[in-house]
Amino acid sequence: MRQLKALLPVLIFFTFYSHSFAQSSRSLQSLKQWAQTNRPPGYDSTLKDLSYTVGQDFHYLYPLYQLYRGEKYFRKYLGNTEYNTALSEAVSFCGDYSSALDYQKLNYDSTVDEVSLRQINKIMQGYKDLQHVDARKYISFLAKDYRVIMINEAHNKPLHRAFIITLLDALYRKGYHYLAMEMLNNYSNNSLTRLTPMTGHYCGEPVAGELVRTALDLGFKLVPYEDTLAYRHTARERDSIQALNIYKVIQSDPNSKVLVVAGYAHIAEKAMDEQYVPMGLAFKKISGIDPLTIDQTDMTEESEFAYGKAFYNAYVGRFGITSPSIALGGDGQPVNVTSSELYDLTVIHPPTEYKDLRPTWLGLNGRRQPFYIKPTNKSTFLVQAYYQIESFSSRPGQVVPADQSFNPTGKGNYLLFLRKGKYIIVFRDMQYKMLYTQHVEVS
Q: What topology does CATH give the domain 131-346?
């Protein structure tokens, strides 16, 4: 009991630690109130599915209009859990990571009782001789021994895509020239050599857009592998078809090395029940190739459930994790700290630090820098930065912004994270009307 009492302050502190750097989004609350009391331009109450485009153009506020104004319908249609998840994803597309995490926390169906805290404390006390190494360097070191690396992501946490971006350069140099991603459009109308609305739904999220751009700039060939008939198939059938589509790359290019990005447990190498064989295991059976599987979802702030959150907070509290890390045991072998046997490695992400309401990991490990924008129109709600070179051939609605935010700082300006280069800044009001544009250069 003495150990538990000693641990409780740590657990309580780190329960709130990740949000001590950020404030609740007043802008998002204003948008919710406005959408519920006004009919947004172009709003179609008969549209029963969420839409991130209006016509052929991206509209990043439209799914929020739908979820706020049509809350009663979507809660009934999706269920409360999926409704909160949809809100979390929609908000993450707009660059408000803190609010995305807040919506995810609404799905916690229980609190962590004293018995569970005691169990977590026992696990923490049992960790002996652990050391933590740089996750990027360790993955790069292991890459030479594998033909296929699979890494997962949570769809509402662009942090995971930001981490993958920082792996690409080293992996490309080691021969990984194919990037297969679940998020890519696998229909005949896809766009795989240039980032457009047809590249894939999640590719419209700005960090995912940067992932696609970076991969193409390095020379990666993008490979879609989603089951195009998933709506007809069981989860097991879908994952098996995904695995087969990835294996076709190996068959067509015997010297190929492939980096695979998938959602959540699709990359698992073991079945969680008899009815479901995840894509990672299916690929292993079909190809005879043992992939290096890397989980990011278990040890990232704000788990999918309350116990996971408490476990994560206790772990980073004890070991002081400040950068993406891999845990190694006394024998130098990787340790899966959650005791899961589904993956080879677990990346332990540190709690997010914020600068003027934006996550600092948006800097992409030094690839981008903070850049402040001061609007001159008081009606400004959303500020978007578009690469000038992409905007010459397409109108703003056809281009994925490099970054965007609807959260002004206390001084009334907006913080964006941008690479060096020329941009067109678009200022929009709450109705998503373009107020004006501004050309800037980041040097």
A: Rossmann fold (3.40.50)
- Mean residue pLDDT of the chain comes to 93
pLDDT at 199 over 50: yes
Given a cut of 50, whether residue 398 has pLDDT beyond it is yes
pLDDT of residue 13: 42
- What pLDDT is attached to residue 237? 95
Cα dihedral sign, 97-102-107-110: positive
| CA 216 from centroid of its chain's CA atoms | 19
pLDDT attached to residue 24: 53
Beta-bridge partner residues of 222? 179
* Class level of CATH domain 368-442: mainly beta
Write the CB contacts of 5 (distance below 8 Å, at least 6 apart in sequence): none
Q: Could you give the CA distance from residue 341 to residue 353 in angstroms, rounded to a whole number?
A: 30
What's the pLDDT score for residue 16?
39
Burial environment of residue 423 by CB neighbours within 10 A (0 to 12, 13 to 18, 19 or more): buried
- AA letter at 17: Y
The continuous run of DSSP H or E covering 169 comes out as: helix 158-173
228 φ, ψ to 5°? Answer: -70, -10
DSSP string over 328-340: E-TTS-B--TT--
Q: How confident is the model at residue 272 (pLDDT cuts 50, 70, 90)?
A: confident
Give the model confidence (pLDDT) of 403-438 as tens digits.
Answer: 999 999 999 999 999 999 999 999 999 999 999 999
E strands in 270-393: 292-295, 325-328, 345-346, 354-355, 358-359, 369-373, 382-387
Query: Per this entry, what is the length of the chain?
Result: 443
Question: Residue 122's CB: how many other CB atoms inside 10 A?
Answer: 12
d(CA 231, CA 210): 29
Per the structure block, which two tokens stand in for 250? Answer: 């190996």
pLDDT tens figures, 353-376: 999 999 999 999 999 999 999 999
User: Which residues in the chain are classed under CATH 2.60.40?
Assistant: 368-442
Report the alpha-carbon distance of residue 87 to residue 100 in Å, rounded: 7
Provide the token pair at 396.
Answer: 């703003």
Q: In what order do the strands lie in the sheet with 292-295?
A: 221-224, 176-181, 257-263, 148-153, 292-295, 345-346
- Give CATH 3.40.50 domain extents, the chain: 131-346
Instruction: State which amino acid sits at residue 334.
Output: P
